[in-house]
Fold each of these.
Amino acid sequence: MEKIFIGNNLLEKLTKLFDFGRFSKIAILTDTNVAKHWLLTVKRSLKQKTSEIIIKPGEKFGKNIETVKNIWKKMFEFGLDRKSLLINLGGGVICDIGGFSASTFMRGIEFLNIPTTLLAQVDASVGGKTGIDFEEIKNAIGVFKKPTAVIINVATLKTLPKRELISAFGEIIKHGVISGREHFNLVTSKKPEEFNQSELITIIKQSVKIKSEIVKKDPKEISGLRKVLNFGHTIGHAIESLSWKTDRPLLHGEAVAIGMIAESQLANQIGMLAETETQLISQSVIRVGLPSKIKNIKSEDIVKMILSDKKNIRGEILFSLPERIGKVIPNVKIIDKKIKKIINYFN
């Protein structure tokens, strides 16, 4: 299990949290946006020589094999060896692509995540999934590899745009649907921007605990238990990828939010989820400020994208659907006609 540190002002005392001295070299991967705010703080805190790899921000253009090739090239130029460390400083894209680059460089070097967005703090930075997008399919290529440590510093959220803060609650509400009423009621009790720093630390700790306990029992999705974390993602990933071609691309949490509403409706239609629970999930997503509709995306394109989902087996479309708030069932087979009917409702 990776070491996870959660709190405030942690970037100023990194060496007190983790032994960086045992590595031959250290490189920091970040993007141009995060570098302006936090790169210097991290470098000063480490108190040793580091090399920096700075890429363009965003998933639409950066989370691909070409970017990975450039990262590998820099790692070779900097003379990194198998005893080196890659620090991923940034949001979900940086954690995903950095973890994948480190896990495949020289057959694998250690990496440490410092997630700077709320979404990355509760999702991409923990759990050991790394990867890149390929041929417009989200996270199609990747490996399971846990970071050596995760350092979650809530102070970084001060520089986070409001839309990205709200977007993260797509994943946070998902954790509530999976785990039960206590977390669900807490995270939907008010708007994301109304939570103070102490409350956010509590929410992050609970979300990380929920995900970590599931991952611990099924780290590589072999037993199927980990698949409950995919609630909202089968439809969500499809519309997220397709939205990149429009003039209004969705953030990951926004797509997951729409996916949760759609998949809850799907569960309701096949008799799994009660109408009261279906409405509660939908209303809670909308109340925190997340979107509930998709625009400028054809339903047939969404179905086509879903058919290429990596979670499908032998051509069967598999969903993780809620039976109630607190219980999500993985590997529910759904025919594409039912999917199209639900998607048409949200267009």
Amino acid sequence: MSLTVRVHRSLSEIPRAEWDALTNHLPTPVFDWSWLNLLETAGGLDADHGWTPLHLALWRGSELVAAAPLYGRGDSWGDFVYDFAFADAAARSGASWYPKLVGMCPATPSVGWKVFVRPGEDEVGLQARWFDEADSLARRVGAASLQANFTEPSWSDSVPGPWRRWSHQNFVWENRSHTDFDGYLATFDKNQRRNIKRERQSLADQGLSLKVVSGDAIPDSWFSLMGLLYEKTNDQFGPYAARFLEPSFFTALGAIRPLLSFSATFQGNDPLPVALGFLLGKNGRFVGRYWGEREHYPDQYFNVCYYGPIDETIRRGWKDFDPGAGSELKVRRGFRSDRNVSLHRFYDPVADKLFASYLGRLNRQEEARIEALNAAVPFRQE
């Protein structure tokens, strides 16, 4: 049976069972139907907020055989690739940078985008067909470029076609077959072992406790609390805040309980968390998304956002923890730096030339930065 190409204006147009047949095996939760659909339907990451769903899918009859999340964009806010300087330079040069078609999970700087293919199908052939159709779609809608962010590293370097490849650094915590948190501590040099122990003990010294709560054990009241803490955290950063989600998103989180965990601190017997860190988890990987605190305590951030999820990753025997975008404070806590790639195909020759003229230098700088960050992780010398 021949293939049918469809462009879906919302993920809800694709039956969940069909999408999940492509993504259930992936080592990341951020492309599950339940998560992407919640972002579109309750999170405000839709056409009215600058994310126009154009999910390109290949069907064989009623069976979905290949697809990937794709969005029309008129700006770069929430892409986390930070191409704003290029967009400004293109505008000054009379070139078009927008609109563009972007493949990614909206407002989620987590690695793993690729063209998803149903297991057992011709992966190489279907991915090539998908890209041909994406190229045609971009030209039909008048896009200035076709772009894919946070692509799966083991996959993106082999993607054929006239792509510009831009290197980016991301943090990851890897479970080196640790059996407990003390085993993780043993990988550090003496000075940093002492520092991490002090930061962990700091909670107890202030009367706080830490635990990770998952799935059905999460109280319903925590969802709206997470929304309030999300707003409070973003209020601290003014115009530089990463405020992408609507309050309705957090109250709807119960719909995706199997993916959810919260790292939480408590003061004494008070059942209401002092701080919450919001995690997605699946197939051996945790992904950190949002955090906030009702009341500030020293070292609370490190425990909620780093040590709690690390401890839970070890306890489950999972492979890794992606903490999301953030500061180089992660280096001292054992997070290694990886390289991920964004793919860019330009339809404006001036924009393409502008991008290409800087790309080599940018990639060399980023790869040198990754090497320097990894050299600075204070692991014990064997």
Amino acid sequence: MVRRIPDGLLARHRFHWGEAVFWVSALAVFSLFPGYLTLATTALIMALFALSLDLAMGFAGIVTLGHATFFGLGAYGAGLLAVEGYQEPIMGAVAGGVLAAVVALGVGPLILRLEGLPLLMVTLSIGLLFYEGANKLTWLTGGDDGLQGIEIAPLLGQFPFTVYGHTGYLYALAWLFVLFVAMRRLVASPFGVSLQGIRENRARMRLVGTPVLGHLVLAYAISAFMAGVAGAVSAQTTKFVGLAVFSLDTSADVMVMLVLGGIGRIYGALLGAPIYVVVKDFAAAWNPYHWMFVIGGLLVVVVRFARGGILGMLDAAASRMAPR
């Protein structure tokens, strides 16, 4: 007997033509705001990073404060490859993602037996260990000075990465689109639905025969791969990797982005990250010392009045406006 997945669970992740607005807008930025492509590239990279966290936390229920570990591994992995002479960008990004996924596969079976606050503290500790390790291994990472001397070959042998950011922006957008489509198919699959069941009630999913730990480890590794690719693209487009990629601030920033957009909504990451990056940039330009008040105020408003993030607020408004 084949179990039928409820249509409602899958309908949330089917493509709707209205979603094309985001991707068309992303392409329009390339033409309309050429002076802000560096900032826009950062927004795309952080959107991919937030998307990876959404898979782990929003769909699998893996609460983590150490997701920057995988972002940093991808950044340093791709950066070190480039320093050693392997400068092809696409395979360098894949290598960074694979490195992060391998580490996740190694630690996942050990830490994903935990839930809640213990899991939160363990992931935080792992992130701090990697941060301190990168700080001490100056011969490999550059320590406080960061990893420098990164040079990336032209994309597809034709499009060089320049200071104007044209190639970097389209490169980051392409990675975001490819991994977004892959994740969309994943969460709409029986595996993705089982992850949501595990998020809601692990004990019940064990009773129906679901290999809970195996599913969580696999989701954690896929999420780490996506975060590693985001870190690698960041290293390739900025040609620099600093200790900040492993910092607690990076993990906290990406969680705030996800909360702003909406956890477990896929497009929440794509919406929350650009808003956070743009607001942070303009707030820092307005007041370099107190810009966090703006971010904090925005977060308080969203959490207080839009429990499902900005997407939740938009859905609620659409429901009120819809005819009975």
